Hints:
Layout: H1 2-97
Amino acid sequence: MEYVAIAAAIFGLLLTVLNIWDKLYTSRQRTMQQGANHQATESDMQVLRQGNASILVKLDKMDSKIDNMNERLIRAEESIKSAHHRIDELKGAARDGT
């Protein structure tokens, strides 16, 4: 009967050692996996940062083009307004002259 108790104690101790080894091994594997995931996330973030920088450059170019178009539109409106005044003056002169 003592042999059974000794065998059970040895078996329990062996299982405890195996459990501790498994916990350490899986913890190490999990840490390595987390490191790999972190590296992949950092790479993805770098790609996103570069994409954002490219978008910002394009946005700045578009903004300057819009400003340029606004200036051209204002000048065209002023020119049209001036042309309308000249046309009105010519119409008035034509009415007075007839």
